[in-house]
């Protein structure tokens, strides 16, 4: 719980509402070599949607998940199913033409409808609700941009309009409104999808981290335990690709956002899904909660992993919620992570130009629910020989956008270089281990080597290498979430060095500092 000033209580937990309100899973780890038609790496919505579509198409499919299915990025989403992705259609209309914008709208809205269809098919109670989505601004200077976005979205085929009235408890200068969008409980949906996948012959292995990929005929995926899965095709759906051969890390920029959720009377429901890029980004929706109440879910305060502590971000977001929804008390809080592609559109398709049987899905830019479902249909079409008409828009091999994405690409690489070199120019982040307060962590030079040292609340220290095992950038400590984070590509590690989030697949090496 939190006090009204946004400060965290001593027993604060950071589990998402979706994970807290669903049972855990216990699919067995991969214990011995296996064979399949397709190996899917990653058990989030992109991986599970792809696996389910493939098994329905008659393929033998094995899913490998490093931790627990639907418990990573997908388990920490705000759970909007929408084809209105902030401000994208006017940009697509300018950069990819009217046809590109139309293809994007078609694929994303089809994903919304696909979830509705599957939820009905499986008979799963996942709190699915239909309603409008809004992108709004409060500053009158931004209203013209929203008018252009509404026009572009309407031209792309969406039921879009420009409005000045919303259900928010404050006035807006304008908003794009798109009808027939959806919101749901993503983990309930995906747990049902996983069980249906298994009933059709699919296999899921949790606590099975993929560490190697051999492309060939057939392909082989090796795992942390040494066991291997051999298959004709492989799909890498790990949110951030865990294999670097395609150099996709040069085209992806990671970011984290914090989420706070509080019960409110049903009469205070703003009646839709809202988002704005103002004020450090704000996203608002509600979900069914209990009799007479809804759960208000507010997201925002974007930051790059390893560059800020989440505590201040939670405080700012909580204060914003209290200001606009007074009397609320935070019941859940968590953080999520997304990857933006440098040219706006997700990367879904063949892994690299020479790929014949390996595929990837990444770069969803905060819209991974509709994007993940669209990826499932797209990748299944590519593997079965019947790709959808919008497959080319998402092709990771697209070269025609290279010039167009150059400014964003160069900016991202400059920022990575700044961290890779600049962080090393600092002789130390703390002069000694003794300086590190309980509950915090810092980089300390010990016997000529930089060590990432964490001191727990009882004073015990734990030290690991400060170099991220992905590409060697120095990590930084997020004291609120108790994690070492890489500012270059977003890998995250527990205080003991174990991998929490890729692209890293190897833990930080333990160090002795006493």
How would you describe this protein?
GO terms for molecular function: 2 iron, 2 sulfur cluster binding; metal ion binding; monooxygenase activity; oxidoreductase activity, acting on paired donors, with incorporation or reduction of molecular oxygen. InterPro entries: FAD-dep_OxRdtase, FAD/NAD-bd_sf, Rieske_2Fe-2S, Rieske_2Fe-2S_sf, Rieske_Fe-S_prot_C. It comes from Streptomyces rimosus subsp. rimosus (strain ATCC 10970 / DSM 40260 / JCM 4667 / NRRL 2234). Among the domains are: 29-76 and 187-250 and 344-407, FAD/NAD(P)-binding domain (3-Layer(bba) Sandwich); 433-501, Rieske Iron-sulfur Protein. Strands 3, 4, 5, 6, 11, 12, 13, 14 and 15 form a 9-stranded mixed β-sheet that branches. Mean pLDDT is 89; it is low at 1-12 and 416-428. It has 514 residues and is an alpha+beta fold. It has helices at residues 17-20, 45-56, 89-95, 97-122, 143-155, 186-199, 310-324, 368-384, 391-394, 402-425, and strands at residues 34-41, 61-64, 80-81, 129-137, 160-163, 174-183, 203-205, 210-214, 219-223, 228-236, 252-265, 273-276, 282-290, 293-303, 332-341, 347-350, 358-362, 440-446, 449-455, 461-465, 476-478, 483-485, 492-493, 499-501, 510-511. 26% of the residues lie in helices and 29% in strands.
Q: How would you summarize the topology of this molecule?
A:
Blueprint: H1 17-20, E1 34-41, H2 45-56, E2 61-64, E3 80-81, H3 89-95, H4 97-122, E4 129-137, H5 143-155, E5 160-163, E6 174-183, H6 186-199, E7 203-205, E8 210-214, E9 219-223, E10 228-236, E11 252-265, E12 273-276, E13 282-290, E14 293-303, H7 310-324, E15 332-341, E16 347-350, E17 358-362, H8 368-384, H9 391-394, H10 402-425, E18 440-446, E19 449-455, E20 461-465, E21 476-478, E22 483-485, E23 492-493, E24 499-501, E25 510-511
Parallel strand pairs: 1-2, 1-10, 2-7, 4-12, 10-17
Antiparallel strand pairs: 3-6, 4-6, 5-6, 8-9, 9-10, 11-14, 11-15, 12-13, 13-14, 16-17, 18-19, 19-20, 20-25, 21-22, 22-23, 23-24
Helix pairs in contact: 2-6, 2-8, 3-4, 3-5, 4-8
